[in-house]
Specification:
Elements: H1 13-34, E1 42-47, E2 53-59, E3 66-72, H2 83-91, E4 95-99, H3 110-113, H4 118-128, E5 134-144, H5 146-156, E6 161-167, E7 172-173, E8 176-177, H6 179-185, E9 190-195, H7 199-208, E10 216-221, H8 228-233, H9 235-248
Parallel strand pairs: 3-4, 3-5, 5-6, 6-9, 9-10
Antiparallel strand pairs: 1-2, 2-4, 7-8
Length: 252
């Protein structure tokens, strides 16, 4: 009778295969973890008409040339706030270019704040200068809070901006008034988004929606938030924002 402890052990093929698979999975996971969070977008730079540098994060649509949207944050928040929206736009085959405001705090000179819309115009010009990647007659702008007011100022004087979406806009933000600029924007379409728990924004949106120069649509949210934070708390607004640009920039 043989002693089972003296038998030559057979190779554990399943164990080796499993171990190799775990090693490969760990290796791939390590590679993925090493990729920067901004891998979906790439850093770009350009300048305003007076030479000021503007940094942006560009998300390219998979099939180009494609429509494109400039994304403008709220005061004190970075362009990265727009990354989830940019990714959804790309899924809809719309390129996105997120930019920062000129500073994280308001300038002491109110006249300087009136010029903060100029980087938006520079971003639009940057996109329009890439006809192989961007449909130059299909560029929109989305802004949040102060970024929304600045988007209206930029669009009022730039016919290249074909559609705008304003998240938590104000009739007046430290002297930046938008009733007249929205009227000057004319027949081009504007989407107005606000939380019903944001009193001044609610009042502002209701007044702005009365502008009869062109299409003015409103979306209300029950989430108690403002600006880009509202978009993070109400995912359905992101869907509606993407659908708005699909429709108004004529995405095929």
């Amino acid at each position: 009778m043989s002693n089972p402890t003296s038998q030559t052990p057979r190779p554990n093929v399943c164990g080796h295969v499993l171990g190799f698979g775990i090693w490969v999975l760990g290796f791939v996971t390590a590679i993925v973890a090493a990729v920067p969070l901004e891998a979906a977008g790439r850093a770009v730079g350009f300048r305003t008409a007076d030479g000021r540098a503007v940094a942006g994060l560009l998300f390219d649509a998979p099939t180009r040339p494609a429509p494109a949207v400039v994304l403008v944050p709220m005061l004190g928040r970075p362009k990265d706030d727009w990354e989830p929206v940019a990714e959804r736009l790309v899924e809809a085959n719309i390129s996105a270019l997120a930019i920062d405001l000129p500073a994280t705090t308001l300038p002491p000179d109110a006249g300087e704040l009136q010029r903060w819309h100029e980087p938006i115009g520079a971003a639009v010009a940057y996109l329009a200068g890439r006809p192989a990647d961007v449909r130059t007659m299909a560029i929109g702008v989305a802004g949040a809070s102060l970024g929304a007011n600045l988007a209206v100022l930029a669009a009022a004087s730039d016919p290249a901006i074909r559609s705008i979406a304003l998240v938590s806009p104000s009739l007046e933000y430290r002297g930046v008034r938008i009733e007249l600029p929205l009227a000057q924007y004319g027949a081009r379409p504007a989407l107005l988004i606000a939380s019903v728990h944001d009193p001044y924004t609610v009042r502002s949106v209701r007044i702005l929606a009365q502008d009869t120069s062109g299409t003015r649509e409103v979306r209300w949210s029950s989430a108690p938030a403002h600006g880009t934070i509202l978009l993070t708390r109400d995912g359905d607004l992101v869907r509606q924002l993407v659908e708005w640009f699909q429709r108004t920039l004529a995405v095929n």
